[in-house]
Amino acid sequence: MTAPESAVRVDGPWLHRDVAANGARFHIAELGEGPLVLLLHGFPQFWWTWRHQMVALADAGYRAVAMDLRGVGGSDRTPRGYDPANLALDITGVIRSLGEPDAALVGHDLGGYLAWTAAVMRPKLVRRLVVSSMPHPRRWRSAMLSDFAQTRAGSYVWGFQRPWIPERRLVADEAELVGDLIRDWSGPTKPDDKAIGTYRRAMLVPSTAHCAIEPYRWMVRSLARPDGIQFYRRMKRPVRVPTLQLHGSADPAMRTRSTAGSVEYVEGAYRWRLFEGLGHFPHEEDPLAFSTELLTWLGDRTQDR
Protein backbone atom coordinates (compact mmCIF):
# COMPACT_ATOMS: atom_id res chain seq x y z
CA MET A 1 0.00 0.00 0.00
CA THR A 2 1.19 3.52 -0.78
CA ALA A 3 -0.08 6.94 0.25
CA PRO A 4 -0.38 10.11 -1.84
CA GLU A 5 1.86 13.08 -1.07
CA SER A 6 -1.25 14.97 0.02
CA ALA A 7 -1.21 12.76 3.14
CA VAL A 8 1.52 14.98 4.62
CA ARG A 9 -0.24 18.30 4.02
CA VAL A 10 -2.25 18.00 7.20
CA ASP A 11 -4.92 20.66 7.70
CA GLY A 12 -4.52 23.21 10.47
CA PRO A 13 -4.08 26.93 11.09
CA TRP A 14 -0.83 26.91 9.14
CA LEU A 15 -0.18 27.64 5.46
CA HIS A 16 1.40 24.99 3.21
CA ARG A 17 3.72 25.96 0.39
CA ASP A 18 6.88 24.92 -1.42
CA VAL A 19 10.19 26.78 -1.58
CA ALA A 20 13.29 26.18 -3.70
CA ALA A 21 16.68 25.80 -2.05
CA ASN A 22 20.00 24.06 -2.75
CA GLY A 23 18.77 22.60 -6.04
CA ALA A 24 15.60 21.00 -4.66
CA ARG A 25 12.00 21.79 -3.66
CA PHE A 26 11.03 21.76 -0.01
CA HIS A 27 7.59 21.63 1.55
CA ILE A 28 7.03 23.93 4.51
CA ALA A 29 4.17 24.73 6.84
CA GLU A 30 4.22 28.21 8.35
CA LEU A 31 2.25 30.15 10.92
CA GLY A 32 2.61 33.58 12.49
CA GLU A 33 4.70 36.69 11.92
CA GLY A 34 7.91 37.87 13.53
CA PRO A 35 11.47 36.54 13.90
CA LEU A 36 11.89 33.25 12.05
CA VAL A 37 12.01 29.99 13.99
CA LEU A 38 12.77 27.06 11.66
CA LEU A 39 11.72 23.63 12.99
CA LEU A 40 13.48 20.45 11.83
CA HIS A 41 11.94 17.02 12.38
CA GLY A 42 13.62 13.71 13.08
CA PHE A 43 13.09 10.06 12.17
CA PRO A 44 10.56 8.51 11.56
CA GLN A 45 8.47 11.68 11.44
CA PHE A 46 7.88 14.74 9.25
CA TRP A 47 7.04 18.43 9.76
CA TRP A 48 3.77 17.69 11.58
CA THR A 49 5.67 16.63 14.70
CA TRP A 50 5.99 20.38 15.48
CA ARG A 51 2.25 21.16 15.32
CA HIS A 52 2.02 22.11 19.00
CA GLN A 53 5.11 24.32 18.96
CA MET A 54 4.02 26.10 15.77
CA VAL A 55 0.87 27.39 17.47
CA ALA A 56 2.75 28.35 20.64
CA LEU A 57 5.45 30.19 18.68
CA ALA A 58 2.96 32.06 16.49
CA ASP A 59 0.95 33.12 19.54
CA ALA A 60 4.18 34.45 21.09
CA GLY A 61 5.02 36.62 18.07
CA TYR A 62 7.28 34.41 15.99
CA ARG A 63 7.18 33.22 12.40
CA ALA A 64 7.11 29.45 12.89
CA VAL A 65 8.14 27.39 9.87
CA ALA A 66 8.36 23.59 9.94
CA MET A 67 10.08 22.07 6.91
CA ASP A 68 10.18 18.56 5.56
CA LEU A 69 13.76 17.42 5.18
CA ARG A 70 14.99 16.26 1.79
CA GLY A 71 13.33 12.99 0.82
CA VAL A 72 10.57 13.16 3.44
CA GLY A 73 7.00 14.46 3.58
CA GLY A 74 6.25 16.83 0.73
CA SER A 75 9.87 17.63 -0.17
CA ASP A 76 11.77 16.37 -3.20
CA ARG A 77 13.07 12.82 -3.14
CA THR A 78 16.37 13.23 -4.93
CA PRO A 79 18.63 10.28 -5.84
CA ARG A 80 21.53 11.70 -3.78
CA GLY A 81 22.42 14.51 -1.42
CA TYR A 82 21.75 12.90 1.98
CA ASP A 83 25.08 13.62 3.64
CA PRO A 84 24.77 16.03 6.61
CA ALA A 85 26.75 18.83 4.99
CA ASN A 86 24.37 18.96 2.03
CA LEU A 87 21.28 18.54 4.21
CA ALA A 88 22.48 21.46 6.34
CA LEU A 89 22.78 23.55 3.18
CA ASP A 90 19.16 22.64 2.44
CA ILE A 91 18.22 24.19 5.77
CA THR A 92 20.23 27.38 5.39
CA GLY A 93 19.01 27.64 1.80
CA VAL A 94 15.40 27.57 3.01
CA ILE A 95 16.20 30.40 5.44
CA ARG A 96 17.40 32.51 2.52
CA SER A 97 14.47 31.49 0.31
CA LEU A 98 12.13 32.71 3.02
CA GLY A 99 13.74 36.13 2.73
CA GLU A 100 15.11 36.12 6.25
CA PRO A 101 18.61 37.19 7.38
CA ASP A 102 18.79 34.39 9.94
CA ALA A 103 16.71 31.97 12.02
CA ALA A 104 16.52 30.27 15.34
CA LEU A 105 16.94 26.58 14.49
CA VAL A 106 15.01 24.01 16.50
CA GLY A 107 15.92 20.42 15.64
CA HIS A 108 14.89 17.03 17.00
CA ASP A 109 16.73 13.75 16.46
CA LEU A 110 18.17 13.85 12.90
CA GLY A 111 16.91 17.42 12.62
CA GLY A 112 19.01 18.20 15.69
CA TYR A 113 22.09 16.61 14.12
CA LEU A 114 21.59 18.84 11.08
CA ALA A 115 20.92 21.91 13.24
CA TRP A 116 24.30 21.39 14.95
CA THR A 117 25.87 21.07 11.50
CA ALA A 118 24.23 24.20 10.10
CA ALA A 119 25.33 26.24 13.13
CA VAL A 120 28.94 25.26 12.41
CA MET A 121 28.81 25.59 8.62
CA ARG A 122 26.73 28.78 8.30
CA PRO A 123 26.88 30.53 11.69
CA LYS A 124 25.77 33.91 10.29
CA LEU A 125 22.42 32.38 9.31
CA VAL A 126 21.76 30.80 12.71
CA ARG A 127 20.58 33.25 15.37
CA ARG A 128 20.02 30.64 18.07
CA LEU A 129 20.21 26.88 18.31
CA VAL A 130 17.86 24.50 20.09
CA VAL A 131 18.55 20.76 19.89
CA SER A 132 16.40 17.99 21.33
CA SER A 133 17.29 14.31 21.75
CA MET A 134 20.51 14.46 19.76
CA PRO A 135 24.14 15.07 20.77
CA HIS A 136 26.64 17.09 18.78
CA PRO A 137 27.74 15.02 15.73
CA ARG A 138 31.22 14.42 17.12
CA ARG A 139 29.71 13.36 20.43
CA TRP A 140 27.28 11.07 18.56
CA ARG A 141 30.18 9.46 16.70
CA SER A 142 32.16 8.91 19.89
CA ALA A 143 29.20 7.43 21.76
CA MET A 144 28.21 5.08 18.96
CA LEU A 145 31.77 3.77 18.61
CA SER A 146 32.93 3.56 22.22
CA ASP A 147 29.87 3.30 24.49
CA PHE A 148 28.40 -0.20 24.34
CA ALA A 149 25.15 0.91 25.96
CA GLN A 150 24.66 3.62 23.32
CA THR A 151 25.67 1.25 20.53
CA ARG A 152 22.96 -1.11 21.72
CA ALA A 153 20.41 1.70 22.11
CA GLY A 154 21.19 2.85 18.57
CA SER A 155 21.07 -0.64 17.07
CA TYR A 156 18.47 0.53 14.55
CA VAL A 157 21.16 2.73 12.95
CA TRP A 158 23.41 -0.28 12.40
CA GLY A 159 20.43 -2.21 11.03
CA PHE A 160 19.86 0.50 8.41
CA GLN A 161 23.17 -0.40 6.74
CA ARG A 162 21.65 -3.42 5.01
CA PRO A 163 20.41 -2.83 1.45
CA TRP A 164 16.65 -2.70 0.81
CA ILE A 165 15.58 -4.77 3.82
CA PRO A 166 15.11 -1.76 6.16
CA GLU A 167 12.95 0.03 3.58
CA ARG A 168 10.73 -3.01 3.16
CA ARG A 169 10.35 -3.41 6.90
CA LEU A 170 9.39 0.25 7.32
CA VAL A 171 6.50 0.06 4.87
CA ALA A 172 5.35 -3.51 5.64
CA ASP A 173 1.82 -3.90 7.04
CA GLU A 174 0.99 -0.25 6.32
CA ALA A 175 4.16 0.99 8.06
CA GLU A 176 3.40 -0.76 11.33
CA LEU A 177 7.07 -0.52 12.34
CA VAL A 178 6.84 3.28 12.35
CA GLY A 179 4.19 3.11 15.05
CA ASP A 180 6.20 0.54 17.00
CA LEU A 181 9.32 2.70 16.95
CA ILE A 182 7.52 5.84 18.09
CA ARG A 183 5.78 3.98 20.94
CA ASP A 184 8.98 2.18 21.99
CA TRP A 185 11.03 5.38 22.03
CA SER A 186 8.41 7.40 23.91
CA GLY A 187 8.25 7.69 27.67
CA PRO A 188 5.18 6.73 29.72
CA THR A 189 3.01 9.14 27.71
CA LYS A 190 2.46 7.46 24.35
CA PRO A 191 1.06 9.16 21.24
CA ASP A 192 -2.55 8.35 20.41
CA ASP A 193 -3.59 6.09 17.54
CA LYS A 194 -4.57 9.05 15.35
CA ALA A 195 -1.10 10.58 15.56
CA ILE A 196 0.53 7.21 14.92
CA GLY A 197 -1.68 6.76 11.87
CA THR A 198 -0.54 10.12 10.49
CA TYR A 199 3.12 9.12 10.76
CA ARG A 200 2.47 5.73 9.23
CA ARG A 201 0.72 7.25 6.22
CA ALA A 202 3.59 9.69 5.72
CA MET A 203 6.09 6.82 5.53
CA LEU A 204 3.95 5.16 2.86
CA VAL A 205 4.45 8.02 0.38
CA PRO A 206 6.57 6.37 -2.35
CA SER A 207 10.37 6.48 -1.85
CA THR A 208 10.09 8.04 1.62
CA ALA A 209 11.39 4.99 3.48
CA HIS A 210 14.52 4.80 1.33
CA CYS A 211 15.26 8.53 1.56
CA ALA A 212 14.61 8.65 5.32
CA ILE A 213 17.23 5.94 5.88
CA GLU A 214 19.93 7.35 3.60
CA PRO A 215 21.30 9.94 6.09
CA TYR A 216 21.90 7.16 8.63
CA ARG A 217 23.66 5.06 6.03
CA TRP A 218 26.00 7.93 5.33
CA MET A 219 26.62 8.55 9.04
CA VAL A 220 27.91 4.98 9.52
CA ARG A 221 29.48 4.14 6.16
CA SER A 222 31.46 7.38 6.07
CA LEU A 223 33.14 6.86 9.45
CA ALA A 224 36.32 5.57 7.81
CA ARG A 225 35.93 7.30 4.43
CA PRO A 226 37.65 10.57 3.46
CA ASP A 227 34.34 12.47 3.24
CA GLY A 228 33.34 11.37 6.72
CA ILE A 229 36.73 12.11 8.22
CA GLN A 230 36.66 15.55 6.63
CA PHE A 231 33.13 16.21 7.94
CA TYR A 232 33.93 15.26 11.54
CA ARG A 233 37.15 17.28 11.38
CA ARG A 234 35.13 20.26 10.19
CA MET A 235 32.72 19.79 13.08
CA LYS A 236 35.56 20.50 15.53
CA ARG A 237 34.80 24.18 14.97
CA PRO A 238 33.00 25.47 18.05
CA VAL A 239 29.35 26.48 18.05
CA ARG A 240 29.30 30.14 18.98
CA VAL A 241 25.57 30.85 18.87
CA PRO A 242 23.44 30.65 22.04
CA THR A 243 22.49 27.00 22.43
CA LEU A 244 19.71 25.25 24.34
CA GLN A 245 19.90 21.47 24.63
CA LEU A 246 16.78 19.54 25.64
CA HIS A 247 16.54 15.85 26.52
CA GLY A 248 14.13 13.36 28.05
CA SER A 249 15.52 11.40 31.01
CA ALA A 250 13.67 8.26 29.84
CA ASP A 251 14.91 8.40 26.23
CA PRO A 252 15.75 4.79 25.25
CA ALA A 253 17.16 5.66 21.82
CA MET A 254 19.67 8.33 22.83
CA ARG A 255 21.13 8.06 26.32
CA THR A 256 21.39 11.14 28.50
CA ARG A 257 25.08 10.42 29.06
CA SER A 258 25.70 10.47 25.30
CA THR A 259 23.94 13.79 24.82
CA ALA A 260 25.13 15.75 27.84
CA GLY A 261 28.77 15.91 26.71
CA SER A 262 27.90 18.14 23.75
CA VAL A 263 28.70 21.27 25.76
CA GLU A 264 32.35 20.52 24.95
CA TYR A 265 31.72 21.85 21.44
CA VAL A 266 29.83 25.02 22.40
CA GLU A 267 31.60 28.34 23.07
CA GLY A 268 28.45 30.45 23.06
CA ALA A 269 25.90 30.73 25.85
CA TYR A 270 24.67 27.24 26.73
CA ARG A 271 21.76 25.85 28.71
CA TRP A 272 20.90 22.21 29.45
CA ARG A 273 17.37 21.10 30.33
CA LEU A 274 16.48 17.52 31.26
CA PHE A 275 12.78 16.60 31.21
CA GLU A 276 12.20 14.01 33.91
CA GLY A 277 10.19 10.99 32.78
CA LEU A 278 9.99 11.94 29.11
CA GLY A 279 11.32 9.83 26.26
CA HIS A 280 12.72 10.54 22.81
CA PHE A 281 9.90 12.90 21.77
CA PRO A 282 9.59 15.49 24.57
CA HIS A 283 8.00 18.05 22.25
CA GLU A 284 5.08 15.66 21.69
CA GLU A 285 5.01 13.86 25.04
CA ASP A 286 4.69 17.11 27.00
CA PRO A 287 4.10 19.92 24.47
CA LEU A 288 3.38 22.53 27.12
CA ALA A 289 6.60 21.95 29.07
CA PHE A 290 8.67 21.85 25.89
CA SER A 291 7.08 24.97 24.39
CA THR A 292 7.44 26.86 27.66
CA GLU A 293 11.15 26.04 27.84
CA LEU A 294 11.60 26.98 24.18
CA LEU A 295 9.80 30.32 24.46
CA THR A 296 11.62 31.22 27.67
CA TRP A 297 14.95 30.60 25.96
CA LEU A 298 14.03 32.51 22.81
CA GLY A 299 12.83 35.46 24.86
CA ASP A 300 15.91 35.66 27.09
CA ARG A 301 17.90 38.51 25.55
CA THR A 302 20.77 38.02 27.99
CA GLN A 303 21.80 35.01 25.86
CA ASP A 304 22.28 37.03 22.68
CA ARG A 305 25.70 37.45 21.18
Global morphology: globular
First-residue to last-residue Cα separation: 50 Å
What is the β-strand count? 8
Structural class: alpha/beta
| Percent range of helical residues | 40-55%
Rounded radius of gyration (Å): 18 Å
Please tell me the overall pLDDT: 95
What is the ordering of alpha helices and beta strands? EEEHEHEHEHHHHHHHEHEHH
Q: Could you list the spans in which at least 5 consecutive residues all have pLDDT below 50? A: none
How many separate helices? 13
Strand content: 15-25%
Largest sheet at a glance?
8 strands, mixed
Strands ordered across the widest β-sheet: 1-2-4-3-5-6-7-8
Brief synopsis:
Helices cover 44% and strands 16% of the residues.
Describe this structure in words.
- With 305 residues, the chain is α/β, with parallel strands linked by helices.
- It is 44% helix and 16% strand.
- It has 13 helices and 8 strands.
- It has helices at 51-59, 84-97, 110-121, 137-146, 148-153, 155-159, 165-185, 193-203, 208-221, 226-234, 256-260, 282-285, 287-299, and strands at 15-21, 24-31, 36-40, 63-67, 103-108, 126-132, 243-248, 270-275.
- An 8-stranded mixed sheet has the order 1-2-4-3-5-6-7-8, sandwiched between helices.
- β5 (103-108), α3 (110-121) and β6 (126-132) form a beta-alpha-beta unit.
- α7 (165-185) runs antiparallel to α8.
- It is globular, with a radius of gyration of 18 Å.
